[in-house]
User: Fold this.
Amino acid sequence: MSNHPDAQAFKKNAAEILAGLQGRTLSAKDRLAIPPQEMPVQDPQVRCRNMGEVAVGYCEEQARLEALRCLQCKTAPCVASCPVRIDIPGFIAKTAEGSFGEALAIVRGSNLFPAICGRVCPQEVQCQSTCTVGRSLKSLEKAVSIGRLERFVADFQRACGGEDAPALPRATGKRVAVVGSGPAGLAAAADLAKAGHSVTVFEGFHKPGGVMVYGIPEFRLPKEIVGGEIEMLKKLGVTIQLNFLVGRTRALKDLFRKDGFDAVFVGTGAGLPKFMDIPGENMVGVLSANEYLTRSNLMKAYDTEHADTPIFRARRIAVLGGGNVAMDAARTALRMGAEKVYVVYRRTEKEMPARAEEVAHAREEGVEFHFLENAKRVLGDEKSRVTGMECFSYTLGEPDASGRRSPVVVEGSEHVLDVDAVIVAIGNESAPLLPQTNPDLAVTKRGNIVVDEAGKTSLDRVYAGGDIVLGAATVILAMGEGRRAAASINKLLAGA
Ligand code: FAD
Ligand code: SF4
Ligand code: SF4
Assistant:
């Protein structure tokens, strides 16, 4: 239980309300009258200079009270809005009665990484978007906090000493290689191991976890949480081979020919950063968000006592983009000591793809937003070090193919933003190595691997899923893809 002052006050309040409800049979009206439980968070002025998790997490009393808000709807629209179809009313009912272990077992039936998804899933556009409570109270924000409850039951069990690995079936003698250890690869590996196959995950980096470890910062997703979920995978007998780049260390085809694997799952993600292609972008002080976040998260540049990873330190930083990656880069820049951080986005806040909660947290921490602006060129001194960024102002025109109104440059609106670093966070493209080294592997124009409805690629016994297929997507969608492909591989090997 956190010692944070908000957390203590929220706990006391929830305990009092729970005591008043004790022994009563609750009507729908009673449930709708229970106040939504706020998530305790670190103070913005304190947290903007530390890497500790921003959201502290529910205590037991808050979790039970929040769970009592659920109407246990027969149709449960929330379930259909969850990409992995968790039995949401089922796990929430167990949470309400305080049977947290049973609640977690229900979640685990569909979602292998509840502590992660409970933290980073965009719940407001998925499970919580259709919640009857939110609809009845005419406020999406008042929907049952499904993600927070999911996080709570997973965290509670970990604090109680963790879980036992599920019993495994007899070994099949079949071997499957998983390329990439992001959520797609790890989810595939878990389901393949549970079917009795011998599974090896090959990861190019020196730590497993994909974007969950190198991209999403510690203050949103502590690496200890990801590590805990990976330990569970090891308990299932999965081998993780690090510093192993398939396509370089070993050719994809050699995984079959030389190493004797029976099938391969490719979950190599979308880790190739895009740039603006504007003058001055090669100056010292222009970085991709990927590089910046990888240095900070994976290489621990923020932990100067234990790591000597170099990272570009600047006083005034502009971050280009409006998605979660831009928010993560901007908030990391504050924590790395920047005095001013500007997010420069060419549409308005309404069109921003970042989660509303992340935008609100960034603003509370002091990030300044420059909407309807974008970079024209980066300015530098005689040593090519960034000294500023010339921007255009924009207005919004007609909707484009994505349905969002397109930004239109205001002619003559050039103005200079005084910055000494620019972080580019305008999106990522698919990892190119495997398509480049396997000309027979069919890819789309954007470089995403093409798969059929079973997750199979154009190559025999090679399946794929996650961002490498979808383009930059979400953790839960990547996991769902990994599980779909694993089911197909299990079917293939059962008949082999
Ligand atoms: P990845 O997570 O990218 O993992 C791929 C792995 O494959 C990497 O570890 C890579 O090193 C490895 N690899 C690549 N090529 C090879 C090779 N040839 N051989 C061996 N290994 C290889 N999603 C959310 O749901 N919520 C969020 O809040 C959120 N925030 C994000 C913030 C940032 C900064 C970023 C970048 C993404 C965010 N996402 C978020 C998106 C989400 O993280 C991704 O959609 C998800 O991680 C994709 O999973 P994946 O398994 O397909 O790929
Ligand atoms: Fe909601 Fe994500 Fe959990 Fe599904 S996995 S219930 S979408 S938080
Ligand atoms: Fe509970 Fe909301 Fe799902 Fe209904 S829609 S079962 S109230 S979480």
About this structure: Residues 475-494 form the longest helix (20 residues). The CA atoms of residues 272 and 429 lie 5 Å apart. Residues 175-271+430-494 form a domain with the FAD/NAD(P)-binding domain fold (CATH 3.50.50.60). The two ends are 51 Å apart (CA to CA).
